[in-house]
């Protein structure tokens, strides 16, 4: 098992969502048999899963660790919460999305019960950093289920009174070359969360929003500030990518750049008319056309950069790299944007369809190589394949329309009814949302044979031991806020207020509210036809009216 522990910290720990364990302490306690038994089992299970070892054995380790959590549900500790986070990752990566979602809520309760959202200046630096990283890792994990929907937010940013993570060199003395990348990734995560909340707030508006461009520029400035301190600058070149191949921190360094570009895409696609994540037509009609054109150019520039980073990595890597799930999410959105802008963009210099399809193909090739058997990424790969196929087919249809224009209206109406239904089904949660993939029922089904076995009874029969704690805890409350978080002047216009809390900007809605009600989404297989998620009636109106 010690081999698996070493493999975990060599290959898995560099992933941002796994950065909540202290490597030196955990490995030493594993060698001395002092580590929490369930935690050791969970670490080994994750390592075995990623290394392609005995999956059944890994599942048994996770099952035993989870039973230990249920036995001590009322006694949360740091090692138990770390164990639970690893269990959630295992469930996610093996396709048990429903269970992972419910366990994530339990993890959030553990963190809240132990007051991990507050700084503890009385503890030693390592213990304080472990607490911070647990909370920030939980936030990263939370985004994989949904982002920007308050009803599913388990650890609201507004309730986190913590500093951002310290550089790896301060957390572990032996580390070199990380250069604060994890800290920057967490900062980017908070910005992307705020941008998504802005996106979801403006989407249903039926009146203009004069402050929209001001809000967008505020977030752009935040991204510019991060870009100023990125180790390699904002542009990851082919040469720099080659230099990262021998670094254990490659997953973080690559994702830092991709996430920065993705944040720009998330922000500027609000101005991309016709795109499902864009602001409503009424809002965009009031925006200066120059700003709309700039938004489209920014989307294309940053989406292309994401694809180029992945392409360079794929072409220069001699072996498969272990990458964070968010890398695949960003790649998917980049490909969507390039395809959409090629077809529906307003810039006369937009990329040709052949170029856009080739970029999407490069993206797909990289995802297939880096995530060959991932249950998390499989739906993304499948959807991207369908996107490329439909895009190519639509290009053929345009040629056919020019030759046989009278045949198009009937076919257009038939497809429009199907496409608009698919667009509505996908509007709330993207294909990569694990909450969407979980496909929870509406509560009417309660079959006895579908119920899970009694874990507490099983665990009691097996006589699992409690195990030791990793970090000492006490229950007194600490109300210390991080000194580095400062409020900024609010941005106000016509009743809309943008404010910063703990360095993060969100939109308050005074006269209008975003429709964030939960709705169930059918699986891909239940769709009437596999369709692009951005298709809608306006797309086909454009085809029928212009035919180009």
Automatic annotation (TrEMBL):
Xylanolytic transcriptional activator regulatory domain residues: 6-197
Gene Ontology terms: cellular component: nucleus
Keywords: Metal-binding, Nucleus, Transcription, Transcription regulation
One GO MF term attached to the UniProt entry: DNA-binding transcription factor activity, RNA polymerase II-specific
GO terms under biological process: DNA-templated transcription
InterPro entries found in the cross-reference section: TF_fung (IPR050815), XnlR_reg_dom (IPR007219)
Top-level taxonomic group: Eukaryota
Localization in the cell: Nucleus
Protein name: Xylanolytic transcriptional activator regulatory domain-containing protein
Organism, scientific name: Verticillium longisporum (Verticillium dahliae var. longisporum)
């Amino acid at each position: 098992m010690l081999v698996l522990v070493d493999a975990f910290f060599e290959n898995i720990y560099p992933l941002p969502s796994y950065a909540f364990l202290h490597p030196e302490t955990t490995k030493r306690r594993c060698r001395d048999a002092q580590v929490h038994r369930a935690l050791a089992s969970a670490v080994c299970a994750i390592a075995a899963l990623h290394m392609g070892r005995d999956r059944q054995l890994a599942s048994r380790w996770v099952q035993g660790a989870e039973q230990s959590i249920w036995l001590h549900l009322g006694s949360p500790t740091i090692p138990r919460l770390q164990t639970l986070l690893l269990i959630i990752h295992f469930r996610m990566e093996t396709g048990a999305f429903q269970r992972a979602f419910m366990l994530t809520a339990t993890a959030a309760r553990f963190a809240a019960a132990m007051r991990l959202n507050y700084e503890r200046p009385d503890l030693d630096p390592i213990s304080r950093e472990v607490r911070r990283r647990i909370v920030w890792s939980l936030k990263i994990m939370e985004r994989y289920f949904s982002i920007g929907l308050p009803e599913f937010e388990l650890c609201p940013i507004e309730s986190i009174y913590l500093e951002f993570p310290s550089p790896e060199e301060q957390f572990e003395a032996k580390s070199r070359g990380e250069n604060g990348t994890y800290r920057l990734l967490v900062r980017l995560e908070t910005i992307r969360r705020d941008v998504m909340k802005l996106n979801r707030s403006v989407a249903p508006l039926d009146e203009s929003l004069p402050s929209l461009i001001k809000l967008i520029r505020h977030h752009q400035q935040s991204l510019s500030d991060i870009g100023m301190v990125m180790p390699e600058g904002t542009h990851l070149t082919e040469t720099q990518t080659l230099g990262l191949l021998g670094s254990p921190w490659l997953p973080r360094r690559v994702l830092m750049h991709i996430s920065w570009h993705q944040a720009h895409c998330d922000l500027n696609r609000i101005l991309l008319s016709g795109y499902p994540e864009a602001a409503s037509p009424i809002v965009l009609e009031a925006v200066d056309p120059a700003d709309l054109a700039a938004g489209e150019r920014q989307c294309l520039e940053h989406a292309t950069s994401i694809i180029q980073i992945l392409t360079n990595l794929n072409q220069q890597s001699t072996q498969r790299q272990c990458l964070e799930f968010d890398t695949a999410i960003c790649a998917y959105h980049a490909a969507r944007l390039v395809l959409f802008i090629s077809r529906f963009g307003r810039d006369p210099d937009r990329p040709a369809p052949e170029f856009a399809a080739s970029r999407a193909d490069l993206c797909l090739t990289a995802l297939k190589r880096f995530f060959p058997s991932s249950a998390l990424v499989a739906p993304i790969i499948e959807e991207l394949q369908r996107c490329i196929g439909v895009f190519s087919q639509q290009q053929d249809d345009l040629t056919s329309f020019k030759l046989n224009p009278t045949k198009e209206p009937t076919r257009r109406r038939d497809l429009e009814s199907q496409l608009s239904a698919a667009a509505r089904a996908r509007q709330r949660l993207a294909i990569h949302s694990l909450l969407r993939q979980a496909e929870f029922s509406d509560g009417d089904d309660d079959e006895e044979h579908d119920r899970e076995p009694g874990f507490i009874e099983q665990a009691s029969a097996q006589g699992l031991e409690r195990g030791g704690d990793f970090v000492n805890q006490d229950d007194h409350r600490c109300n210390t806020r991080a000194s580095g978080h400062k409020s900024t002047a609010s941005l106000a216009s016509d009743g809309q207020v943008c404010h910063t809390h703990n360095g993060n900007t969100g939109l308050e809605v005074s006269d209008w509210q975003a429709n964030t009600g939960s709705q169930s989404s059918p699986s891909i297989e239940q769709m009437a036809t596999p369709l692009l998620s951005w298709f809608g009636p306006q797309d086909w109106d454009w085809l029928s009216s212009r035919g180009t």
